[in-house]
Amino acid sequence: MSLQVEITAGICDLDPVSWDALTDGSPLLSHAFLSALEKTGCVGPGTGWQACPLLVKDGSLLLGAMPLYVKSHSYGEYVFDWSWANAFEQHGLDYYPKLICAIPFTPITGPRLLSPDPAIRKLMAEVLSQQLHGLKLSSAHVLFPEDESVESLQNAGWLRRNGVQFRWENESFESFEAFLATLTHDKRKKIRQERKRVAISGIVCRRLTAENISKEDWELFYQCYVNTYHQHRSSPYLTKAFFHELALAMPQNILLVVAERDGERIATALNIYGQSRGGVSCLYGRYWGALQYVPGLHFELCYYQAQEFCIEQGIRYFEGGAQGEHKLARGFRPRPTCSFHRIAHPDFAYSIAQVLDREAEMMELYQSELEERAPFRR
Question: The pTM is what?
Answer without folding.
Answer: 0.96
